[in-house]
Amino acid sequence: QVQLVESGGGLVQAGGSLRLSCAVSESLFSINVMGWYRQAPGKQRELVARITAAGSEYYADSVKGRFTISRDNAKNTVYLQMNTLEPEDTAVYYCNAKRAVLPGWRDYWGQGTQVTVSS
């Protein structure tokens, strides 16, 4: 059972920055894909960014150029650097780990951390 603990959320003004951290209970090399999702009130959870074990990155169009996902394998931690934040970025941010369990995948989730961007 992979455990994920997020931290780093908070209240920030538009244009500001935050860095979210996700501490993982197992080696990142045992996880196929690490990702950050977010869910705003009344909306569905959406993928923000993900990074594979090989280091391949993906970003949602809405955050491309502003957010950066990274991983520190030595610390078993994944980060989401969020710059030029907008009120539309306000949401609960969740860390996700995907592990291949043939024939499918198993998902693990953190408890979420609130990010609020004021205008």
Write up what this structure looks like.
With 119 residues, this protein is mainly β. It is built from no helices and 11 strands. It has strands spanning 4-7, 10-13, 18-24, 33-39, 46-52, 57-59, 67-72, 77-82, 91-101, 104-109, 113-118. Strands 2, 4, 5, 6, 9, 10 and 11 form a 7-stranded mixed sheet that branches. The protein has a 4-stranded antiparallel sheet with strand order 1-3-8-7, with no helix packed on it. A hairpin with a 4-residue loop joins strand 5 (46-52) and strand 6 (57-59). It is globular, with a radius of gyration of 14 Å. It starts with a strand and ends with a strand. 29% of the residues are buried.
List the helices and strands and how they pair.
Blueprint: E1 4-7, E2 10-13, E3 18-24, E4 33-39, E5 46-52, E6 57-59, E7 67-72, E8 77-82, E9 91-101, E10 104-109, E11 113-118
Parallel strand pairs: 2-11
Antiparallel strand pairs: 1-3, 3-8, 4-5, 4-9, 5-6, 7-8, 9-10, 9-11
How is this structure best summarized?
With 119 residues, the protein is an all-beta fold. The protein has no helices and eleven strands.
Overview features:
seven-stranded mixed β-sheet, mainly beta
Number of strands: 11
Helix amount, in percent? under 10%
Helix count, DSSP H or I runs of 4 or more residues: 0
The helix/strand series, from N terminus to C terminus, equals EEEEEEEEEEE
Gyration radius (Cα, Å) is 14 Å
Q: Class by helix and strand content?
A: mainly beta
Q: What is the mean pLDDT?
A: 96
- Which spans have pLDDT < 50 for at least 5 consecutive residues? none
Question: How much strand?
Answer: over 45%
Main β-sheet, in a few words? 7 strands, mixed
Structural shape: globular
Q: End-to-end span in angstroms?
A: 40 Å
